[in-house]
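fwd from M.: "can u put these together and see what the complex looks like"

so here's what she sent:
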Amino acid sequence: MRRESSKEKATRLYAFLLTLYPQGYKYAFGPQMVQTFKDYYADVVESGQQAEVPFWFGVVSDEVRGILREQLAVLKESTSMNNVWIKQGILFGILLGIIHIGYNLINNLAPANLTLNSLLNNSILLIVAIFTSVAGYIAVRKTGQLKMGTYAGLCTGLLSIGIGISALFLITFAFMSIIRQNAFMIFDFHRSGLSSIDEFIIQDAVGATIVGITFSLLAGGICGTFGGYLGKIVKGRENDE
Amino acid sequence: MFQEHPEKVKISLFCPLTIGPPRTYNCSMKTEEDGTPLTPAVFYILLSLAIGEKHGYEIMKQVKQDTQGKITMGNGTLYGSIKRMLTDGLIEDGGERVDPDKERRKYYRLTERGRQTLGAEMQRYVETVRLMQERQLIPRLSGQVNL
């Protein structure tokens, strides 16, 4: 059996060191780095210019710095990508949350009107879908990753519904006397069979909370992904041009 | 070779540069629009490639030679710099070749942007030396540098 030469052993050891680099970096530069190492080893150690110990000391210290630098770069990139979806989610979540506040104010305090209520409910569904889609679109345009669109949509939906529900309960408790006189509320209360209208109003708000959270999460995930998909297509076309 | 079109790389210490990529290489200093000053690694890699395409180990050897052995660039530093320089468009892949020793090596070459950036950095050095001469800050030079 052929004995492994010192160069082959050194190359194997060096190749092991390279496994500590990030995956993408290894894929792009690994084979070249091994070849450069072989050239360097042959030129410096095999020719007797330098002994093995100082040679390896130099190689390992340089590679440790390189590995740390590249791993940090990957970490930084991933942090910056996370920042993109969080930023979009917060921005669109707050904007949508403000719209939720307006919706709750009109829905609870305005005089009962079937046309207005129907328009209001349809509009809020459409607005939630648009905002979560746009948040997803922008996040993917900036990062190129589809999952960032989903995250941005979910973050937008969750934050906005959080603001909306807080507003709903504040309005409910602050303006209970006005809500008690709402014709729709009185009609629904009579149908519910509950003994107190205040109890019914609170139960109605809890029901709206459950529906709102479920709808916002679904819309955030689906529309954010859809917006992100559009963003990916547009980004791809721009890159082709 | 970088002074062929001085009007295109006209640089004054008092006016901003208008050539090259707007990148920062040395975070400790405020940089001009062309990305200068460069880190020593980037500068010497650009300098070594200015005289022709090279593979990794040739670049390492050239840098050592150009600095009279004062800078020895390790593999990690070299390829870390190459990665960033490729991203910034300063150098490009010159393709793989099978050399006479039957080993396959990847070559790199300067891009036009890399050439301009190196030119701007050299011009910055020239301006600095001129200023030092004017202020007589370099009396120990064996001969006057003709710029």
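replying to her w this: The helical segments of chain A are 6-18, 23-46, 52-109, 114-143, 146-174, 176-179, 183-192, 197-240.
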